[in-house]
Amino acid sequence: MDTILDKSTSDILIQRVRNLTKFSEARWGKMNIVQMLEHCNDSSKMAIGTKKMKRMFLGRIFGKMILKKVLKNDKPLKKNSPTVPELISAGKNEFKTEKEDFIRVLSTLGMMKIEDFNGRIHPFFGEMTGKEWGVLMYKHFNHHLVQFGV
Asked: What CATH number did the domain enclosing 70 receive?
């Protein structure tokens, strides 16, 4: 399965992000382009550990079961999948800044090691391995890039 923790995969995602414009429109969902970029950047901060979030009650009950279902194959995430409330963005920042930040974080993630993520806590899925983080982040970012047509 594809993982964000592979430089060639992150390079492909970076090229796709470069194809986004401030006029890119969502094919589904409620986010505009800036909200999507902010959301992906905040998700990256969560994965890296610089943005702390509380565990969700429902995640404690269902998180591991849903994570296994999401990661069991290469199928993309479903349209309009729910998100962690703390990762819902207002879209108040500038497109150019958020796009540059996303490219920078994708480049950084592509150089990180699986071990760097072992034991990190996701607010819904709980403690995850580095391999799980890498695949989940790839699926998440791919989901949003497809959402915006790149």
From this structure: 1.20.120
Amino acid identity for residue 113 in this structure: K
| Coil vs helix vs strand at 114 | helix
72-97: b or e for each residue (b if 16 or more CB lie within 10 Å)?
eeeeeeeeeeeebeebebebeeebee
What are the pLDDT tens digits along the chain (150 aa)?
Answer: 999 999 999 999 999 999 999 999 999 999 999 999 999 999 999 998 888 889 999 999 999 999 999 999 999 999 988 888 888 888 889 999 999 999 999 999 999 999 999 989 999 999 999 999 999 999 999 999 999 999
Whether residue 1 lies inside any domain: the answer is no
